[in-house]
Task: inverse folding
């Protein structure tokens, strides 16, 4: 029996046929389900509501300028306009608010960096994302910024928990969700059909993050999971923008999310004092205000060796599809590449080489 929001569904009695079975309802699975259904396809989504989900732990930051060297994030000029349209349209469809536009302020670490950005801000690629080059400290004195900083456009955050719960409710209302851990041993391939217990589909799509590593599928993909931890803190008064240097400090629902660290060795889902201390050291180097820690969470992100998403069909069985490897930028990557995968599945349009799973074959 499967429990789903207060009532039970007997999987053995589900004898329906669907176009696609989607395993996982994190950012990848949710965005793909939305895209496929928008294009007129039927899906059955399996979501382990009691399992771990990096999408639910994610800070949800949408940041066009990243890294220590402050470079334009990969494919920003394509991804950012697309994600804005996608999340805005989905808000209207689901009747729920979860996408928030908010400026990001990145303090400069030197006069040289300030000078560099006064020139770079006029460049075609960077200009859409630069609101202002600030040449002196902010009056509010929230963070350490003796050389001013870069105020960004096109930035914001996705409240991932509200987004995922809204999609979950919408799928359930349409009878396309089962809150159950997917049993790989119950998956069979009969002729040109995928059969899972009594459910039939044309293809099965794995959007289940690091869980895919525990299966016998897509072993060729060079997964390199990364653990990240975030803090929830209180600052008074609540900040009106995101501050980002070493760590990000993001106002969110009356509190603030601070993160994140990166750990490729400890892949447990347990929060650690070591990570908390590491984040706090960076936070105290940036923040001038007093704060109080309210919560601390950990998650394991599904990254791959070349830090690019992975999507497409298995070389061994075209009925097996993967959409994974979104890593630390899932909120920004998921909408665009869910659309690309949906178009490939329905219309046969090509998947870009840089993200195609066949790069590992």
Result:
């Amino acid at each position: 029996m499967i429990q789903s929001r207060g009532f039970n569904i007997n999987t053995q009695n589900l004898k329906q046929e669907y176009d696609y079975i989607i395993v996982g309802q994190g950012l990848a699975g949710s965005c793909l389900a939305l895209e496929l259904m928008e294009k007129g396809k039927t899906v059955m989504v399996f979501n382990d509501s009691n399992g771990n989900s990096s999408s639910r732990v994610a800070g949800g930051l949408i940041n066009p300028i990243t890294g220590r060297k402050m470079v334009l994030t990969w494919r920003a000029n394509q991804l950012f306009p697309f994600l804005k349209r996608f999340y805005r349209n989905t808000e209207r469809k689901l009747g729920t608010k979860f996408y928030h536009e908010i400026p990001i302020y990145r303090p400069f670490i030197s006069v040289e960096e300030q000078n560099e950005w006064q020139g770079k801000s006029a460049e075609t690629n960077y200009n859409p994302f630069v609101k202002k080059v600030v040449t002196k400290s902010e009056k509010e004195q929230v963070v350490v910024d003796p050389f001013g900083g870069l105020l960004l456009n096109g930035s914001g955050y996705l409240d991932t928990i509200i987004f995922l719960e809204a999609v979950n409710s919408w799928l359930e209302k349409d009878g396309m969700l089962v809150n159950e851990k997917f049993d790989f041993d119950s998956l069979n391939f009969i002729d040109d059909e995928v059969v899972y217990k009594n459910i039939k589909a044309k293809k099965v799509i794995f959007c289940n993050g690091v869980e895919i590593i525990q299966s016998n599928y897509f072993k060729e993909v060079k997964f390199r999971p990364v653990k990240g931890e975030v803090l929830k803190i209180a600052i008074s008064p609540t900040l009106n923008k995101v501050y980002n240097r070493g760590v990000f400090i993001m106002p969110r629902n009356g509190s603030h999310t601070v993160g994140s660290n990166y750990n490729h060795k400890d892949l447990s889902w347990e929060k650690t004092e070591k990570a908390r201390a590491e984040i706090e050291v960076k936070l105290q180097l940036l923040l001038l205000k007093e704060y109080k820690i309210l919560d601390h969470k950990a998650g394991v992100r599904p990254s791959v060796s070349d830090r690019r998403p992975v999507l497409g069909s298995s070389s061994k069985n075209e009925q097996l599809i993967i959409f994974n490897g979104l890593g630390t930028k899932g909120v920004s990557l998921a909408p665009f590449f869910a659309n690309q995968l949906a178009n490939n599945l329905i219309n046969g349009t090509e998947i870009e080489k840089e993200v195609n799973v066949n790069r590992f074959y």
User: Anything to note?
Assistant: Residues 1-13 have pLDDT under 50 and may be disordered. Residues 226-301 form a domain with the D-Amino Acid Oxidase; Chain A, domain 2 fold (CATH 3.30.9.10). The longest strand covers residues 292-301. The two ends are 39 Å apart (CA to CA).
